[in-house]
Amino acid sequence: MEKITQFKVAVIQAGAEVMDKEKGIEKTIRLLEEAAENNAKIIVFPEAFIPAYPRGMSFGTVVGSRSAEGRKDFLNYWKNSIKVPGPETKEIGKAVKKAGSYVVLGVIEKDDEYSQGTLYCTALFFGPNGELLGKHRKLKPTGSERLIWGEGDGSTLPVFDTPYGKIGSLICWENYMPLARAAMYAKGVQIYIAPTADARDTWFATVRHIAAEGRCFVLSCNQYSTKDMYPEEITSRDEFEKLLHELTRGGSCVVDPLGEYVVEPVFGEEKIIYADIDLEKITESQFDFDVVGHYSRPDIFQLVVNEKKQENVIWKKDSR
């Protein structure tokens, strides 16, 4: 595979079409086409872009009880989530093929193997031929996310070798898990995708640290969302009315392998952020620090990663 060391990437900071899968797909396609027209070879979308990161929604849940209204909310969220692979990924894949870029897209995925009732926060990877290369399911939902999303396992921790370097992703607060990061570094990730819903100042310290620690480029992508992007049946609720109008301020950015900003965080607007990448800067940065090379101590520290798919039921046929 011929390697291309200098190229452009696009980080798409935009709000979701909340609880509207069809409109969300349309917006996704429009934005990736725009980014491709500007010669972006890797295009990144935020966490849970289809159908939404459900900020401000309680799903009617408090400890020890649920509500009928909350169950209806979950049903609506489930209906607007997608199967992977499925008709929605095929539709997006056609647009990706037309664009001819690598695309990483945050979605909410329906389980299509067992009960079909569980949802996962997932990052999808598309190749420039429109093929769905694979996916990463969030390993550990945070806080109240645990009420609505299941946990991924080690079978969806891919790093893909592309002409534009090795591409992988951890989602939002998974990036605070040092062993998860170590697994990504050991796979040689060079373009580290960090879709998120966190726009606090502490997040920027995190992505800069990851870039310097992993000696990789970090593409951090967040939504910019306001209350008027949500449907009326959600915004009319008392608990939602207490929230600020600007629900997510953005903060998408690109960081180089020494932890310096290529593009500083962008706040307060929907915007496609472009950055020029030079992979040779990774090798330059590894001169004095290579986390899984000369700076590792396997005689002292070793990590075991279980990449086996976890099955609920194992069927054994009678061999007689």
Tags for this entry?
alpha/beta; 8 helices; Nitrilase/N-carbamoyl-D-aminoacid amidohydrolase; seven-stranded mixed beta sheet; 320 residues
In DSSP terms, counting alpha (H) and pi (I) runs of 4 or more, how many helices? 8
CATH superfamily grouping: Carbon-nitrogen hydrolase
Q: What string, H for helix and E for strand, traces the elements in order? A: EHEHEHEEEEEHEHEEHHEEEH
Average pLDDT across residues?
95
Q: What would the principal axes of the Cα set say about the shape?
A: globular
Helical residue percent band: 10-25%
Overall radius of gyration: 20 Å
In CATH, the architecture is 4-Layer Sandwich
What does this protein structure show overall?
Helices cover 25% and strands 27% of the residues. It has helices at residues 21-37, 68-79, 87-99, 178-186, 201-214, 232-235, 238-241, 280-285; strands spanning 6-13, 40-44, 82-83, 102-110, 119-126, 132-137, 159-162, 165-169, 191-196, 217-222, 224-226, 246-255, 261-267, 271-278. β1, α1 and β2 form a beta-alpha-beta unit. α1 (21-37) runs parallel beside α3 (87-99).
